[in-house]
Amino acid sequence: MGTGVQEQRATLGQGEVLPLDSPSQAEGSYEGLRHTRSVLNSLFSGALAGALAKTAVAPLDRTKIIFQVSSARFSAKEAYRLIYRTYLKNGFLSLWRGNSATMVRVIPYAAIQFCSHEQYKGLLGGYYGFQGKVLPPVPRLLAGSMAGTTAAMVTYPLDMVRARMAVTPKEMYSNILHVFVRISREEGLKTLYRGFTPTMLGVIPYAGLSFFTYETLKKVHAERSGRPHPYSYERLAFGACAGLLGQSASYPLDVVRRRMQTAGVTGHTYGTILGTMKDIVSEEGVVRGLYKGLSMNWVKGPIAVGISFTTFDLTQILLRKLHQMGYTAR
């Protein structure tokens, strides 16, 4: 059975040759390959960035969640005591309890968020006529918000599972799959999306301001220093500023989200965002309730976001250099 090429050759007369792909076809194929490689690089870089950042601050993150979902008063001293008691009772690795669930959520979340941010930047850049350049302020903010909402929508049930594992003893949920099974059987599948609305409302300012601040600081740095690429410590500082602003702006909604996510195991019945806020304020006050643990977030947030943005940028640069070296070697 002959191939299409063999059949085409059979019909050629003497002196005729097979037609080659037109330059436009070859260029289109190359552009498609380059786009695919860019997406894969962004996904890998984002996954690595998220994993490193969250693992670095996991003990602080777990402690913050425990205070967020309880009525206990927060202070740096009490946070330290909680971490120390956990260490004495359950060992050093217990400080990372729930981190496996965090990784299952964070790796796809960060991969999708960073990758979609690159895609949204390209789309908005093309629409506003800034292709390949730094976007103007409004599209810059919009690209970050859209990236955050895209990632949160896809991975939300994993965030719910992670919150449950962080505030419950090991005997209650043995692993990630066990959390899914128990919640589905005892509370219904809808529970996996409890707290979804405050999450979406919170991620818009958080992701938007984080990406906006980081991109803006890099732009200002390039204009004033004359260097297109900041040093690693400068990237960390820019990311820290981005995390500080983003998390401070969205923190009350983060508290509401955690309360709604863990209502099934804390004995509360939180139904709506406003209702949850009202209950928190009436029981604990505005500052001590809605901003509980914010000071800890000012420590862990800048560290995590700084590591995340820096890791993503440096991994992207490394992958591009490796690709160029591969072509040079040929």
Automatic annotation (TrEMBL):
Residue windows of the Solcar repeats: 37-123, 135-220, 230-318
Pfam families assigned: Mito_carr (PF00153)
Listed GO CC annotations: mitochondrial inner membrane
Keywords: Membrane, Mitochondrion, Mitochondrion inner membrane, Repeat, Transmembrane, Transmembrane helix, Transport
Subcellular location per the Swiss-Prot or TrEMBL entry: Mitochondrion inner membrane
Gene Ontology BP term (one): transmembrane transport
Reaction catalysed by this enzyme: AMP(in) + ADP(out) = AMP(out) + ADP(in); adenosine 3',5'-bisphosphate(in) + ADP(out) = adenosine 3',5'-bisphosphate(out) + ADP(in); dADP(in) + ADP(out) = dADP(out) + ADP(in); ADP(in) + ATP(out) = ADP(out) + ATP(in)
Membrane topology: Multi-pass membrane protein
InterPro entries in UniProt: GDC-like, MCP, MCP_dom_sf, MCP_transmembrane
Biological role: Mitochondrial carrier mediating the transport of coenzyme A (CoA) in mitochondria in exchange for intramitochondrial (deoxy)adenine nucleotides and adenosine 3',5'-diphosphate.
Protein's recorded name: Mitochondrial coenzyme A transporter SLC25A42
High-level lineage: Eukaryota, Metazoa, Chordata, Craniata, Vertebrata
